[in-house]
Design brief:
Number of strands: 0
Structural class: mainly alpha
Helix content: over 70%
Radius of gyration: 21 Å
Number of helices: 17
Strand content: under 5%
């Protein structure tokens, strides 16, 4: 077997189970969307606001998984297994601390955030109800992120797939029970997701601690390690903050375009997040492999990863894009019984599907750069992307569009061409040079 074939096999063996973990939160929101969409249009629009806040919060903390993966894989590649696992445990303690703090903040100030995002009347009521019901599931979800950093670094990620599938089943069953049978409405939806989040958190934390004990790593919180983990993750936090701020402003624009555009945006965005996590799984597989190669100071092998991982991301984008177009043509009634909203959902899904190959290529390179711990560059490039994208949104908001068809088309075109395109350009230029890999090897 050639080296390229071996790399491709490693990418696939890591990407498929990793996808299981990545889709957990988007899958929960997707299930919530499908069920709540049949409660009322106001509930679906409110879910768009509330779920955006939750996904933004969880997304801002994704550094818990990314940073932990790079640290654990790099240390293991350098032959320091105990130190690598202890870095992962530090990340789990940090996740718990952040989760509790953020949950309390959202519990007390979530309503104000919903209003700032443009929610009004019944949409605001529904958004607040959803947020209050789901908010204390965040610590469980962040524990999932941090625990997965350990499993990815160890390249033992099958358990993440099992946890994600089990969590999705629990969420679906409870969603139907609480919303359809008990008729709790959007509160039942949030409560079901909260229970599923903690179920997954416990399911992954226990084996992570067992692996820690196996390698002689301590379970105790180490202040120095927690502070170090937070410091290393800060540029990643800035990166994600810029990206999430962009998506929040997208929701604000959708809200200003009207209730039906906002409701359809929520459905399309749920499927888009699902698709992006398929692509991100490839990037994270590349991240773990590159970090291990850099830890072992195998420069040529790390370079080869760029070609193979980016190709895998592009091809996956083509395949998933075709599936997304077919889904958009037949699945819109699953999200709303309203014909006008169904048409907007189909339109949005087709537009975003066309650009998924570009997204796959960009996400793959993102994973490579995170694996090389090129965090400062990613913080700068994503901040630049956010500024360009928000200026574009501002321009779009000032335009007079003929109808909702044009509004949803423009919205998803801007996301795909500007938000994804600028990041793709920055990442592509970065990996063509040697700075990213020289810096990474110098740290070993």
């Amino acid at each position: 077997m050639t080296k390229s074939a071996t790399i491709r096999r490693s990418i696939i063996s890591l990407a498929i189970p990793t996808f299981g973990q990545l889709i957990a939160e988007p899958a929960f929101i997707l299930i919530d969307t499908a069920v709540v969409g049949h409660v009322s249009d106001a509930s679906l629009a409110g879910l768009s606001i509330g779920s955006t806040i939750i996904l933004t919060t969880v997304g801002l903390c994704v550094f818990l998984a990314y940073n932990t993966t790079s640290q654990v894989a790099g240390l293991i590649g350098a032959g320091k297994k105990r130190e690598g696992i202890e870095a992962g445990v530090d990340g789990m303690w940090l996740a718990l601390i952040i989760g509790v703090a953020v949950s309390l903040l959202l519990f007390f100030f979530g309503g104000e955030l919903c209003a700032l995002m443009g929610a009004r009347g019944q949409v605001l009521v529904q958004a607040e109800l959803y947020l209050q019901a789901i908010v204390f599931g965040l610590p469980g979800m962040l524990l999932v992120y941090a625990a997965n950093g350990i499993f990815r670094g160890l390249q033992k990620v099958r358990i993440t797939l099992i946890a994600a599938v089990t969590g999705a089943v629990v969420n679906t069953v409870l969603e139907i029970l609480f919303v359809v049978v008990f008729r709790w409405g959007i509160i039942g939806s949030g409560t079901a997701t909260l229970i599923a989040q903690w179920f997954m958190g416990i399911m992954l934390t226990v084996p992570a601690l067992i692996w820690a004990r196996k390698y002689g790593a301590s379970w105790k919180p180490r202040v120095e390690g927690i502070v170090s983990s937070a410091g290393d993750g800060f540029p990643l936090f800035i990166r994600t903050l810029a990206l999430r701020a962009s998506m929040v402003m997208t929701v604000v624009l959708a809200a200003n375009m009207g209730e039906q555009v906002l409701a359809s945006y929520q459905a399309v965005n749920s499927t888009w997040n699902f698709a992006l996590n398929m692509l991100d799984a490839i990037g994270i597989a590349g991240q773990a492999l590159v970090a291990t190669s850099i830890g072992a100071r195998k420069r040529d092998e790390a370079r080869r990863m760029v070609k193979e991982v980016s190709r895998a991301g592009f091809l996956a984008g083509i395949a998933i894009g075709i599936g997304m177009i077919l889904l958009g043509l037949v699945a819109a009634p699953l999200f709303s019984p309203t014909p006008a909203i169904q048409m907007l959902i189909t339109t949005g899904m087709i537009v975003q599907a066309i650009f998924l190959p570009l997204s796959g290529w960009m996400w793959a390179l993102d994973g490579i750069l995170i694996g090389a711990e090129d965090y400062r560059f990613l913080a700068y490039s994503c901040t630049l992307t956010a500024l360009v994208y928000m200026l574009t949104l501002w321009g779009a908001a000032r335009m007079q569009w003929p109808d909702d068809f044009w509004r949803i088309t423009v919205l998803w075109s801007l996301i795909s061409v500007v938000f994804i395109g600028v990041r793709a350009l920055c990442n592509g230029l970065r990996v063509r040079g040697d700075t990213w890999i020289d810096q990474a090897i110098a740290k070993v």
